[in-house]
Amino acid sequence: METVKNLEISLKSKKYKIFLGNNLLNQIDFILKNHLTNKNIVILYDKVLKDRLNILELSLSKVASKIASIEISSGEKSKSLNNYIKLCEQVIKTGISRDTIIVAFGGGVIGDLVGFVSSTLLRGLNFIQIPSTLLSQVDSSIGGKTGINSVYGKNLIGTFYQPIAVLTDVSLLQTLNKREILSGYAEIVKHSIIKDKVFFQWLEKNGPDIIMGNNQLRIEAILKSCRIKRSVVEEDEFEKGNRALLNLGHTFGHAIEGYLNYDGTILHGEAVSIGIIMAIKLSLKMGYCSKNDYERILKHFNDVGLPTSMKLYTSKIIDPLKLWKIMQNDKKMYKNHLNFILPDKIGKCTIRKDIKKSEVLSLLNEELRT
What is the pLDDT of residues 214-265, one digit of tens each? Predict the structure, then answer.
C-alpha cells in the first residue's frame, strides 16, 4: 500500500483532511471508509478521466451501497448557470437523499461547479474532492470556494462550502500535458511569493524537476502549497481580510480570461502567471517592490517556461480600457475600490486599496504596446 500523507484543515464551519500520495484512487475505500460506508455516492467526473473512472467506481463499490456517475465537460464554459441547472436535475434523477455523498472528480472547473451543486442540492449535501490537475490539487480544491461564471465575470455566483475530505492522487497528473502542469505550477509559485521565501528558493532549485514529473518532489511541493493555503484560509475562511492575498495575479488574470470569453485560448494558470508578473511590475512602478526581487521572479518564470506577458495573445487582447472595465466586475471590488494584491518582496504581499485607474491603465498600455 502506498504511503499516504495527510493535512488537517481546521475551520470554524468544519474540519477535514487532505490525503496526499501516489496511486491513491484504488485505495479510497480504505482511506475514506468512515465517510463512504453504506452511502449512496454520485460521482460527477470530467469526461477526460473516463479511463480512470472504472478504478474509482471499483474502489467505491467495496464500501458504498449505490453508485451513479455523471459525465461533465471541462473548460470554463461548463461553469454556466444553464449547465448548473442541468447538472442539478441529473443528480436529482439518480435518487438522492440528505445522506448522499457527491464526489467531484476532475480539475478546478469540475471542483468549483460540483461544489456549488453540492452546496445547494437539498440545502447542502456532503461532497468529496478528488482533484485531478496540479492547479486543483494545490489551490482550488482547498478552502471551500465554489462557483459558476456570470456573463459579467468569473465566479460571481457561488458559495463558501467545505468538502468533507480531499483525496489528492499525484498519479492523476500523468494525464496532463506540460502546458497543464505549468498552469498548476503558477499557483504553487504564487503561494511562495505570498508567504514563504524559503519555499521560493526551493522552487528555484526544484521547479524544473517538478514540472518534468518527479513524483516525490511533486508531493512535497503540493504539501508545502497546501500548508500555506491552509494557514491563510484558517485565519480568514470567508475572505473578509487576508485570504484575499491568495488572489495574487487573479485581478489581472481573470480580466484576461474574461476578455477572451473563456474560449480556451489561455488556461487559468497561464492567465494567473501573466497576472502575477503584471502585479509585480505594478508594485515596482509604485515603489513597493525592489528591482532585484522583480528580476528574480521573472527569471524563475522564464526558466521553467511560465508565460510572463500578454504579448502572446495580442491578436485578441488589444484594448486596455476593456480590460479595466472587466476588472470592475471582479469579486475583489470593495466600497467602489478595486483591491490589488501586490508583492512587497518575495514572501510578503500586501492588499492595496489605493491604486488609481491611471496607474493600471498606464501599465496595461505598456504591456500591449511593447
Answer: 999 999 999 999 999 999 999 999 999 999 999 999 999 999 999 998 888 9
Rounded CA-CA distance 179/25 in Å is 24
| Domain spanning 4-175, CATH class | alpha beta
DSSP string covering 12-71, please?
SS-EEEEEEESS-GGGHHHHTHHHHTT-EEEEEEEGGGHHHHHHHHHHHHTT-SEEEEEE
- Nearest residue to 214 (alpha-carbon basis) of 180, 181, 168: 181
Same-fold call for 4-175 versus 178-369: no
Q: What residues act catalytically?
A: 123, 145, 187, 229, 239, 243, 247, 250, 254, 268
Q: State the sign of the Cα–Cα–Cα–Cα dihedral 141, 142, 147, 148.
A: negative
Query: Among 14, 12, 20, which residue's Cα sits nearest to residue 227?
Result: 20
Reading the block at residue 108, the C-alpha cell is 478546478
The alpha carbon of residue 217 and the mean position of all alpha carbons in its chain are separated, in whole angstroms, by 20
DSSP symbol at 139: I
In the chain, domain spans: 4-175, 178-369
Q: What is the 8-class DSSP label of residue 136?
A: I
CA–CA dist 116, 316 (Å, integer): 31
Instruction: Return all residues near 201 (Cβ < 8 A) that are at least 6 apart.
Output: none
Q: Is the pLDDT confidence value at 311 over 90? A: no
Residues 159-204 pLDDT 10s: 999 999 999 999 999 999 999 999 999 999 999 999 999 999 999 9
CA 84 to CA 148: how far, in whole Å?
8
- Structural class in CATH, domain 178-369: mainly alpha
Q: Could you write out the DSSP letters of every residue in 151-207?
A: TTEEEEE--B---SEEEEEGGGGGGS-HHHHHHHHHHHHHHHHHH-HHHHHHHHHHH
User: What cell does 95 get?
Assistant: 435518487
Amino acid at 20: L
